[in-house]
Each structure stands twice: as structure tokens, then as C-alpha cells.
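Review form for a predicted model. The reviewer records the input and the model, then writes brief findings.
Reviewer: anonymous (R2)
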Amino acid sequence: MSTASSTSAHCCGDVVAESSLVAPEERGTLDVRTRAIQHLVERVALDTPGTVAHRTTLGRLVGSGSPRARVTMDGRRARVDVDVAAIWPCRAADIATTVRERVLDEAARLSGVLIRAVDVTVHVIAPEAADEPETRRVQ
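Model under review:
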């Protein structure tokens, strides 16, 4: 048994020694999954002033609602379609522009993925249709 543990320790030492000889940019790549970018875009969209969380009764049952993002990846580039909800009365065009800008800047910065295009659809809802704001677990 002691032979096996010394072999694995020796093996790990070789890996560390080899990785320290390789330049950082050549060590590997970061693989950001489409689903992770989708969640990131939805969070950025919801944090945009003027947007609210919204789920219909059916949406509550199947787990869908607003904001909702669809991400199409092409290598390290992405195209995003995002639906957001806003309470009437609102300036839907201004909200769409702000969401687009924030997704292009923040989601790209946080994910490292180049976002080529962002299409935003704003669904205007009645005040009573908005979901209660989420309370943060850690404050």
C-alpha cells in the first residue's frame, strides 16, 4: 500500500512541475456553458432598473417566467434573446435599451464570452401581476 501512495504523490509532483513550465495562456481554456450564460443574462436583466420578476400561473407550475433568456453559442461568441417584464406605466423602449446595454457589458465581462447581439422583448404588465421581490439569503 505504501508503494501506491508514493507513486500517486510522485505523479502529482510531475503534474505540478509540468504545469509550471507552461505559459498561463497555453495551460487550457475556460469552457463557459450555455446554461451558465443564460442564468447570468437573466440575473443582469432582472437587476436592470424598471424590470420585475413575473410568472404566470402556468409559469409557476413549469418553472418559467420573466426574465427569460435564450442563448445561442458559436464558439466563444453568443447571441442572446431576452424577455423582461416591466410594470405599466413605463418607458418600454428605454428599458429595452438599458437591458441590452447591461447584458452586452456586464454579462460579457463576467462570462468572458463575446456577446454579438442582444434582442430584448419587454412585456408590460399590471402592477399586481409582478412577483414579490426576492429576499437575498446573504446580506
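Findings: The chain is about 40% helix and 20% strand.
Further findings: The domain at 32-129 is CATH 3.30.70.1350 (Alpha-Beta Plaits).
Recommendation: see findings above.
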